[in-house]
Design a protein that fits this description.
Layout: H1 2-12, H2 14-21, H3 23-47, H4 58-80, H5 107-123, H6 126-152, H7 156-165, H8 171-182
Length: 183
């Protein structure tokens, strides 16, 4: 909850905070706050009591590994390819060459969802469900929230261009978009 609040509250007050301290200071402070909150949450996960919800099975590891490959591809693509409606580089998006955005408008968030889901499956304890499951839910909420935030600052022409260059979920486009982003 603290990690989510540390993202939602500054996001809601972004314009006011940037007006007070400037864009660079906002980004630096937000980054430091996020790192500190994440470190605190990870510490709490490590020291929490273990309450098993389901027994371990080998298939859970394979599930997690199977989900981590696309998660890592999505994360790398989000870093390499401009993502105008999501987290990542916004500048330089070309609707004619959407890259990973042809598959998913939110590659970083989809990767975070897959990461969280995979780790809930393989851990099977209450803390994992709260931490990794919470991360997965946070990523899903981010899909809607990021589009709303990004479109708020765009003209109708820009929105039309971005929507024309991006598509909803298409498994076949994942490989194409990732390859276009990397190569």
């Amino acid at each position: 909850m603290a990690f989510m609040a540390g993202h939602i509250i500054p996001g809601l007050m972004r314009k006011q905070i940037i007006g007070w301290i400037g864009h660079l200071a906002y980004v630096v402070c937000f980054s430091i706050l996020s790192i500190l909150l994440l470190a605190w949450v990870i510490h709490e996960v490590l020291v929490a009591d273990f309450i098993m919800l389901w027994p371990f099975a080998v298939w859970q590891v394979y599930c997690t590994l199977g989900l981590m490959l696309p998660a890592c591809i999505l994360w790398a693509s989000a870093i390499l390819q401009p993502c105008p409606l999501s987290i990542g580089r916004k500048n330089g998006f070309d609707p004619a060459r959407p890259g990973i955005n042809a598959f998913c408008r939110h590659p970083l968030l989809l990767g975070a969802f897959l990461w969280g889901l995979g780790h809930v499956l393989s851990n099977g304890d209450l803390v994992a469900v709260i931490f990794f499951g919470g991360s997965a839910v946070f990523a899903l909420v981010g899909f809607v929230r990021m589009e709303k935030i990004r479109m708020r600052d765009m003209s109708q022409t820009e929105i039309s261009q971005v929507l024309a260059g991006t598509r909803r979920f298409s498994p076949a486009a994942l490989l194409y978009g990732a390859c276009q982003s990397v190569f």
